[in-house]
Design brief:
470 residues; alpha/beta; five-stranded parallel beta sheet; two-stranded parallel ribbon; 9 strands; extended
């Protein structure tokens, strides 16, 4: 009888040996028949107990590491995965391109010929420019077979593509809110269209364009033939025209800015519908928003403020000497005209080494120059000052909210930190309802805007919302 049980004992030892590496305490309890493990009946909840112990072990492992370190590791891994994915996509694309062109010399000739032909077009003002454009269109037919995806400015696409032959399955127009109605021709080249834009950002500029010429062309070609033909004119964008027919799909997740920076745009332009996905702790630059007052005076004849301009350049130089900004990129936006831009750009070239300008991608411009762009650190100059006794003349959102759109773009370009250099006292220099006053109130305490967002999101009624606020 004892011999007959040898096989059972061996089987028991095999199971215990398999269990011991992953659950040593449990294996020991079974081997020594401790407590319930000495019973001849297997516990009915053994599967649940095993799962519970596994989950408990996972939670214990998480709890050993501080949350801040886990978050930092998660961000680092996410960035790493994006970089690896981008490299993989790039190498795969090049592999398939080379595979095609190496086996078809005519494709390689077409690609190289198109590249050289486009270079010869240059600015498009030379005598031979029309000839080179026509040649580029011919070559593009073969080029499209080799490279199915093309990324280029709309002007270059219209210049070098043949609408009759270069038809794409999908045409994606980015920054469509900045593309004027001359961009409509690109839609002819796509079977399906994806129009990406933001009607709360800067619209096409109409500087130097003749309104009479536009009206004449509209009357001659599309009046009575196209619905809403009156919208096809100055300040109309490809996005605004498309939105008259198709319902826009709003993308609500925001990846660029920390919550304190996007709070202004979220409240004033997007009615708190934007969901910031970055945590404040993801940036080492503190505070995220800085109200930097200076005793500057706006020039009465020009839209410049010398003190603000010099302060910005001095601050950039100081940042370049700090290790926290060693890898940061910098941008400067003037909220009032281009004369301040030119002044700051001149000072930057004079005071900052060219190597640093290139390394930190230092760029100066107005809001439209930065639409679709970003920097780690942004410096905004408001230019205005008040040398009189009473408040300044009211500055509203502007015609078709043009000014509000510029503020929206300017206030949402910084990823980690935004400095607002100004010479104004919001309480004494500006009237209630002035766009500058609201902006400065936000700069003074950006967390109030985030709190307001939470209140409005969680309140069940306007009355409850007002009670919580006050």
């Amino acid at each position: 009888k004892i011999y007959a049980k040898c096989s059972l004992k061996k089987k028991r030892e095999d199971y215990l040996n398999r269990l011991e590496p992953v659950a040593p305490l449990w294996a020991d309890a079974i081997r020594n028949r401790k407590d319930i493990h000495g019973s001849t009946i297997i516990p009915s909840n053994i599967d649940d107990a095993w799962k519970w112990k596994q989950y408990y072990g996972i939670i214990e492992e998480f709890m050993e590491v501080p949350y801040s370190e886990l978050q930092k590791k998660s961000l680092s891994l996410s960035q790493y995965y994006r970089e690896v994915t981008a490299k993989f996509a790039e190498k795969s694309a090049w592999y398939n391109l080379l595979k095609k062109t190496e086996s078809d010399i005519s494709m390689r000739q077409a690609l190289n010929g198109w590249k050289l032909t486009v270079k010869k077009i240059g600015k498009g003002t030379g005598k031979n420019a029309p000839k080179y454009r026509a040649e580029a269109r011919k070559l593009m037919v073969k080029c499209q077979e080799a490279v199915p995806s093309w990324i280029m400015p709309i002007g270059k696409a219209l210049e070098t593509l043949n609408p009759r032959q270069n038809i794409f399955d999908v045409v994606i127009i980015d920054e469509a809110s900045q593309s004027d109605i001359s961009s409509l021709a690109i839609l002819y080249m796509g079977k399906k269209l994806i129009i990406v834009g933001d009607d709360k950002q800067v619209s096409p500029l109409d500087v130097g364009k003749s309104i009479d010429k536009i009206n004449t062309l509209r009357t001659k070609y599309i009046e009575g033939k196209i619905t809403n033909h009156d919208l096809y004119g100055l300040n109309s964008s490809l996005y605004s025209v498309a939105s008259t027919t198709y319902q826009p799909l709003m993308l609500k997740e925001h990846f660029r800015c920390v919550p304190e920076i996007i709070a202004y745009s979220n409240k004033t332009s997007y009615n708190f519908k934007i969901k910031p996905l970055r945590e404040s702790s993801s940036s080492i630059l503190k505070p995220a928003v800085i109200d930097y007052k200076v005793p500057g005076i706006r020039d009465d004849k020009r839209k410049i403020n010398i003190v603000e301009a010099k302060t910005i350049v001095a601050l950039i130089k100081a940042c370049l000497e700090l290790k926290e900004y060693a890898e940061s990129s910098f941008g400067v936006i003037s909220l009032l005209g281009d004369e301040q831009v030119e002044l700051i750009q001149k000072l930057i070239i004079e005071k900052i080494d060219t190597i640093d300008i290139e390394k930190h991608s230092i760029l100066c411009g107005n809001p439209s120059h930065f639409q679709g762009d970003e920097r780690d650190v942004m410096f905004l100059t408001m230019v205005d000052s008040n040398s009189g006794e009473g408040p300044l003349r009211m500055m509203t959102d502007g015609t078709e909210s043009a000014r509000k759109k510029r503020y929206n773009v300017a206030a949402s370009r910084a990823k980690d930190q935004m400095w607002v250099i100004n010479s104004l006292d919001a309480n004494n220099d500006l009237k209630t309802g002035d766009i500058r006053k609201e902006f400065l109130e936000y700069i003074n305490n950006p967390k109030d805007f985030i709190l307001t967002e939470e209140i409005e999101k969680n309140s069940e009624s306007i009355f409850e919302e007002e009670v919580v606020k006050y």
